[in-house]
Write a structure and sequence with these properties.
- The protein has about 625 residues and is α+β, with helices and mostly antiparallel strands.
- Helix content is about 25%, strand content about 30%.
- β16 and β17 form a beta hairpin.
Length: about 625
């Protein structure tokens, strides 16, 4: 039974116990990492968010009742212990924050009992991600995850201090908006009952911050949540923390460089950091390249010499780069950059002078109207920030919005829409302004050497556990009691379905038999960055290596709903590069046409079929 905390006061955390405190009494609180009953002695590893300390319960040092309670302790009980700090000498246990120091218990309170946890709470847990995420409230007790999350809090605190010291004003702007603009992303939509109006969750912070500039609040910044109705992968979560600030465009690169160095020194203790075993030097001056110069450096192609859209598309065809019919030269330049350049940008590099086609809210370069005054910072192949010289000409801005509206009409779900209120603000007058956005979560990933964004989020997005069950329970409670009836089998209407005609030409058996169809287990799945269609699958094909296959089915499936499924793939096709990634085969899907739209179902089979099973 849980005991009261009345009169209880924690004097310090585990890692704060030092040699100077030997002989002193302290009170610690935390979770039981491990308990070992040796008869007359009970050893407990006590864990709090600072680290682990060993506690000794000895019959005689603690009263009989306390000793009996100690003998019943098990993993994840929450306890408070008061005792004397001792130096046991001998070998130092590196797993303990206090080394050779231990606490000889004199009193014990059990603050919360625990069921046996479904997985061990340990550093660098080997438990499968989906299990740990299901019990995230328990996984949060993991020491390495707690360190990441505390470091994130420190990054946000220091970021605020840095920009406040630079004379910036922190503000808050609306999350519910009538027009979600400022980024190329699909928004979440909801309904405002009081106004009987559909609204969206913001996808950026930009447009309201610019309104503040119009209102005379210069040098402003905001750190806030934004929401993008997109897939989940190792670097993307549908809701995430973004920081945007607005000031003069000139000097923004220098400001960004200073901020990254400041955070590295304060958080990591050095401007040299390590990510995935690679040293990244934030102390040296950051490299600077135009987007076209970067493409020329890594491919030899000079897009300044490419005449028009058709010539650019021809180059894309020659290099097997996928594009859409609506794409122009600027879009092709961006696709080349993503394919050939991003993967090379490990050390800090500013990329400048983007094509106007991919920057609808940005000022043109006076020297080249096909390019804009914009830069991105890349570190570890990741885009770490994005900065613009903001467009403040309402006539030019209206034309840009019209072009975006046309893209939306052509089916681009990530296109911006005309925002009349924002145009009215520009007509009143916005002074020359630069804007920059930083992804805080990605920055914390870099500084903490975290391999996935979920490792720096308290509660990463995942499919609801038991959502259907909760919905059914709620409906049952709201409805009058009725006699249970057997639910009839669902009748599927295929009357509007069209299928591709069967091939008339026969294929001989020897040719057919050369295609190697295998069952594959989907171990991981993520959206391919910069692609709206492609999903990247990591597959177990029954061999001792993982197989990567890309498939353009993101319109039909989100990555997380496919993990753990068993699919069918052709595994002896030659590798084909897609978005710079070798695709080693083809997943099999069933396609049809219904009401003028393509339908697709990935062929998934019984999970009892082992990986690598051959189809005949």
């Amino acid at each position: 039974m849980a005991e009261s905390m009345k009169g209880l006061h924690r004097t310090c955390r585990c890692a704060e116990v030092t040699k100077d405190m030997v002989g002193s009494k302290v009170t610690l609180m935390g979770w039981v990492q491990k308990a070992r009953n040796k008869g007359g002695l009970v050893f407990v590893d006590l864990r709090d968010r600072s680290g682990i300390m060993q506690v000794i319960f000895e019959n005689g040092s603690i009263d009989q009742e306390g000793f009996e309670k100690a003998g019943k302790l098990r993993s994840e009980f929450v306890i408070a212990v008061t005792g004397t700090v001792e130096n046991r000498g001998g070998a130092v246990n590196e797993n303990l924050a206090t080394g050779a120091l231990e606490l000889r218990a004199e009193s014990l309170r059990i603050l919360a009992e625990s069921e046996v946890p479904p997985f061990p709470i340990e550093e660098n847990s080997k438990t499968k991600d989906e299990i740990r995420l299901k019990y995230r409230y328990l996984d949060l007790r993991r020491p390495d995850l707690q360190r990441n999350l505390m470091m994130k809090s420190k990054v946000m605190m220091l970021t605020r201090k840095f920009f406040t010291d630079e004379g910036f004003l922190e503000v808050e702007t609306p999350m519910l908006v009538s027009n979600a603009g400022g980024a190329a992303a699909r928004p979440f939509e909801t309904h405002y009952n009081a106004l009987n109006e559909d609204v969206k969750l913001r996808i950026s912070l930009e447009l309201y911050l610019k309104r503040l500039i119009v209102g005379g609040l210069e040098r402003v910044y905001e750190i806030g949540r934004v929401f993008r109705n997109e897939g989940v992968d190792t670097r993307h979560n549908p809701e995430f923390t973004l920081m945007e600030l607005y000031t003069y465009y000139e000097g923004m690169m220098e400001l960004t460089e200073s901020m990254f160095r400041y955070l590295a020194e304060k958080v990591c203790g050095s401007t040299k950091i390590s990510y995935n075993g690679i040293e990244i030097d934030l102390g040296k001056p950051f490299a600077r390249l135009t987007m076209n110069d970067a493409i020329k450096k890594y491919t030899g192609i000079d897009f300044d010499e490419v005449a028009d859209d058709e010539a650019a598309k021809k180059l894309a065809d020659e290099h097997h780069i996928e594009y859409e019919d609506r794409h122009k030269k600027g879009d092709i330049i961006n696709l080349f950059f993503e394919e050939y350049c991003e993967k090379e940008l490990i050390q800090p590099t500013f990329i400048m002078d983007h094509p106007i086609e991919i920057s609808p809210l940005t000022k043109k370069k006076p020297s080249d109207p096909n390019k804009v005054e914009r830069f991105e910072l890349f570190i570890n192949t990741w885009e770490m920030c994005n900065a613009y010289s903001e467009l403040n000409d309402p006539i030019d801005q209206r034309e840009r919005f019209k072009a975006q509206d046309a893209l939306a009409d052509a089916g681009d779900e990530e296109a911006n829409h005309t925002d009349e209120d924002f145009l009215n603000a520009l007509e009143i007058g916005m002074p020359p302004t630069g804007g920059i956005g930083y992804g805080i979560d990605r920055l914390v990933m870099l500084l903490t050497d975290s391999q996935a964004i979920r490792d720096v989020l308290l509660f990463p997005t995942m499919k609801s556990q038991g959502a259907a069950k909760n919905e059914a329970n709620n409906a049952a409670q709201a409805a009058p009691a009725v006699k249970a009836e057997e639910k009839p089998a669902e009748k599927i209407d295929f009357s509007n379905v069209k299928i591709e005609p069967l091939f008339e030409e026969n294929v001989d058996f020897d040719t057919f038999s050369k295609s190697d169809f295998r069952a594959v287990k989907i171990e991981a799945c993520e959206a391919v960055p910069k692609s709206k269609k492609l999903l990247k699958f990591t597959l177990n094909d029954g061999t001792d290596r993982k197989r990567t296959i890309l498939s353009g089915i993101h319109e039909y499936y989100e990555p997380e709903e496919l993990v753990g499924k068993t699919a069918i793939a052709i595994v002896n096709l030659p590798p084909r590069k897609m978005m710079g990634i070798d695709s080693e085969g083809m997943l099999i899907s069933a396609v049809h046409e219904e009401d003028g739209r393509e339908g697709l179902h990935l062929l998934m089979v019984d999970e009892h079929i082992p990986a690598g099973a051959k189809l005949y």
